[in-house]
Specification:
Chain B: Its main location: membrane. Chain B: This is Amino acid ABC transporter permease. The structure holds 2 protein chains of 2 kinds. Helix content of chain A is about 70%, strand content about 5%. By secondary structure, chain A is mainly α. Among the domains of chain A are: about 15-50; about 80-150 and about 265-385, MetI-like (MetI-like fold, Orthogonal Bundle). A 4-stranded antiparallel sheet of chain A has the order 1-2-3-6. Chain A has a two-stranded antiparallel ribbon with strand order 4-5. In chain A, strand 4 and strand 5 (about 250) form a beta hairpin. Helix content of chain B is about 75%, strand content about 0%. Chain B has 14 helices and no strands. Chain B has helices spanning about 1-15, 15-40, 50-55, 65-75, 85-100, 105-125, 140-165, 170-185, 190-205, 215-240, 240-250, 255-285, 295-305, 315-345. In chain B, helix 7 crosses helix 10 (about 215-240). Chain B is globular and about 75 Å long. Classes of the chains: A mainly alpha, B mainly alpha. At the A-B interface, helix 2, helix 4, helix 5, helix 12 and helix 13 of A face helix 1, helix 2, helix 8, helix 9 and helix 12 of B.
Chain lengths: ~400, ~350
């Protein structure tokens, strides 16, 4: 009976044979895709010729001849288009990195606040989350930018904030150190290594003798050493303090209103999403866990740190990774308020050279690379926090 | 009653830090709330022909909204004809609600959409039946925002279903094409897709074929949301038990019969919350078309604020627009929750 069925199937052959059908469909799909690509490519070649637009990546080595407001590497109008794109990429990365840090800090605060027992705090946090999540990010950026550039006083009238900081129409001005910063960074590095080493030792000790390892020595090493170094440098070298004049500020460091608005807008927007993710993560931990920890005599802080948060992170990390990806991609909204990120510099270059295909390909590749690196990092982190056996 | 009071007292003043928090919050409320209320309501100017009255009163200048709301809501669409986009907007909302209500079969829904789209386009473009023609570059404001969001998700839907099914396909070529498309689109920002559409579509099409800016933006939004929608639908597909597929195969159904009649209807039910979230995101993201020069709700408000007479009333203008966006998003999320509940009860 079975043999007969196989026999009919084999005799049927052709379209009714699964293997043949699979092959035929795949060849067909491939042919359609190749056809569409060829059609578009031929059109592209014809159109580029008709409009006499040059092709190739040679333009990357030509002089850009436009200024960029903010750059972390040496750049002038004589530099090449390639350098300009690099400046844009760095500006994008700086915003993404600072945005991730700030929004995580703010989101953690809001998330904890929304779980507060206090009937005044929790609704406020929830209200913030609901309001911010339901209004487009671009609108929020416009508002912050307008507030920072139109509603703040001019340099001469700007009020002096603590530590010699000024917030004026021209941006955030603050005192800087021209030398000695390396010492602070070195102290930070030493502190990180020492804290890591202490963590390993403390864990080994805890494994042998029981009891959770204390947190304060690590916090002291991480925060204390750089603070000491900073204090030392601040006492020995003079600060370059911004001074308001009639036409602006002289001296000091400055963060442009574009960057400030972008950072505030991006961080507050993403903080609302991160707060929700963390809240959901903490809520997902069974109440019995905290009760059991309390029954074992753990304090509230210890319960949170040793029992609840490790389990909450397991739930929260994948959506958190998604949120960081969104933040990195949303830095491209910088173009709307004139911060020179990758997208806005790419747009300028397209307008100057007309080589849209190449520039857009470079930009897309850069964003893809950023997205893939964030995914890779968060996958690694997720594997670390996931429960053993559930990875 | 006593228990409630003591419970409240514990939650407000249970510990020293909590008491401090409560006091600080109360102080902040007392300090901030009265000035805010005075600004927004008591000292506000509700209607005035010139901003001088606002400056005299000192509070919020809602007169700006009173003066400019037609410009903000409809952009540069000819003033006399603005009933047409309003009608089109209402029709689009009714179409979405009717198809989501699940009271009609798919033939009715499809027919309704075809007819509705034709009427909406007729209303917006005019040119026949005595309606004055209005070119697409004059379309703007709230109707443009809503039409882009709905048009984007409706056009993306078939594409997303194909991508989601393709990603689960056993055919390696089909699968890799779908995975590459989805992951590439999800890896880049919407702004870059919009730029790509506005710069590259003219280069990729034959010279005679001109695509206007609105259609290019719609194409970009469609492609972008299709990738995310495909992932939402894939999530739904994974929630359908494999027994369903096997049972359909045992009954002799073909792949497409199995997918369209058995698996997808169940998968889409599971995917409703994810799709609603996507739609909320998409509704907010349509504001990015302003960057490539389409006068959507947000850009129309920005242009209204460019009037030198009224340019200082940033907060009033943006609060008005933010309330519109928030109201739409709030409504979508409530509606999707109600839909979910209804489907759960029916099962």
């Amino acid at each position: 009976m079975k043999a007969a069925a196989v026999e009919t199937e084999r005799r049927a052959g052709g379209w009714n044979e699964p293997a043949f059908r699979a092959l035929a469909i795949q060849v067909l799909v491939l042919a359609i895709v190749a056809g569409v690509v060829a059609f578009l490519g031929l059109n592209l070649v014809g159109n580029l010729e008709a409009r006499s637009i040059r092709t190739g990546f040679g333009f990357l080595w030509q002089a850009a001849s436009f200024e960029i407001g903010q750059s972390f590497i040496p750049y002038s109008a004589d530099a090449t288009f390639g350098t300009a794109l690099l400046v844009g990429l760095l500006n994008t990365l700086v915003v993404a990195l600072l945005g991730v840090i700030l929004s995580t800090v703010a989101g953690t605060f809001v998330g904890i606040a929304s779980l507060s027992r206090n009937p005044l705090v929790a609704p406020l946090a929830t209200g913030y989350v609901e309001l911010v999540r339901n209004v487009p990010l671009l609108l929020q950026l416009y508002v912050w930018y307008a507030v920072l550039t139109q509603m703040l006083p001019a340099a001469a009238a700007a009020p002096k904030l603590p530590f010699g900081v000024y917030l004026a129409k021209s941006g955030l001005h603050f005192p800087i150190l021209h030398s000695g910063l390396w010492l602070v960074l070195a102290a930070l590095f030493v502190g990180m290594v020492a804290a890591f080493a202490y963590g390993l030792l403390a864990r080994r000790r805890a494994d042998r003798f029981g009891g959770p390892p204390p947190l304060w020595p690590r916090a002291l090493l991480l925060a204390g050493l750089p603070s000491l170094a900073f204090l030392f440098v601040a006492m020995t070298t003079p600060f370059d303090v911004p001074r308001p004049t009639r036409f602006g500020f002289s001296g000091g460091g400055q963060v442009s209103p574009e960057l400030t608005a972008l950072l505030i807008g991006l961080s507050l927007y993403n903080a609302a999403f991160i707060a929700e993710i963390l809240r959901a993560g903490i809520m997902s931990v069974d109440r019995g866990q905290a009760e059991a920890a309390a029954a074992l005599g753990l304090k509230r802080g210890q319960t949170m740190r040793l029992v609840v948060i490790p389990q909450a992170l397991k739930v929260a990390v994948p959506p958190l990774a998604n949120q960081y990806l969104n933040l990195a991609k949303n830095t491209s909204l910088a173009i709307a308020i004139g911060y020179p990120d990758l997208m806005s510099i790419g747009n300028t270059i397209i307008n100057q050279t007309g080589q849209a295909v190449e520039v857009i390909a470079i930009m897309m590749a850069a964003y893809l690379a950023i997205s893939l690196s964030i995914s890779a990092f968060m996958n690694w982190y997720n594997a670390r926090v996931a429960l053993v056996g559930t990875q | 009653m006593n228990a409630a009071v003591s419970g409240l007292r514990y939650r407000l003043f249970g510990s020293i830090s909590n008491s401090l928090l409560t006091v600080a919050m109360l102080a902040a409320f007392v300090m901030l709330l009265p000035p805010l209320l005075r600004w927004a309501f008591f000292d506000a100017t509700w209607a005035a022909a010139s901003p001088d009255a606002c400056r005299a009163n000192g509070g919020a200048c809602w007169a700006f909204i009173h003066e400019k709301y037609r410009l903000i809501l409809f952009g540069r669409y000819p003033y006399e004809e603005q009933w047409r986009p309003l009608l089109a907007l209402a029709l689009a909302v009714v179409l979405v609600l009717a198809s989501c209500s699940l009271r009609f079969g798919w033939r009715m829904v499809l027919g309704g959409w075809l007819l509705g789209t034709a009427i909406i386009l007729l209303l917006m473009r005019g040119g026949t039946l005595g309606l004055a023609p209005v070119p697409t570059d004059l379309w703007g404001g709230l109707p443009l925002t809503v039409l882009l969001a709905i048009g984007g998700i409706v056009c993306a839907f078939p594409l997303a279903v194909l991508l989601a099914l393709g990603r689960r396909s056993r055919l390696p070529v089909v699968k890799s094409i779908c995975v590459a498309t989805i992951e590439m689109v999800r890896g880049v920002p919407l702004v870059s897709v919009l730029f790509m559409a506005s710069f590259m579509i003219p280069l990729f099409l034959p010279g005679r074929l001109q695509v206007d800016a609105l259609l290019r933006a719609l194409a970009a939004i469609t492609l972008f949301s299709a990738a995310y929608l495909a992932e939402a639908i894939r999530g739904g597909l994974q929630a359908v038990s494999p027994g369903q597929e096997q049972a359909a195969a045992a009954l002799g159904l073909t792949y497409w019969q199995t997918s369209l009649l058995v698996v997808l209807p169940q998968a889409l039910r599971h995917a409703i919350p994810a799709i609603a979230n996507l739609f909320i995101g998409l509704f907010k993201d349509t504001s990015l078309v302003g960057i490539v020069g389409l006068t959507d709700l947000l850009l129309a408000a920005k242009q209204a604020l460019a009037d030198p007479q009224w340019r200082t009333f940033i907060v009033e203008g943006y609060v008005f627009v933010a309330l519109i966006y928030a109201a739409f998003c709030f409504f979508i999320s409530r509606y999707s929750r109600a839909l979910e509940r209804r489907l759960r009860n029916e099962r």
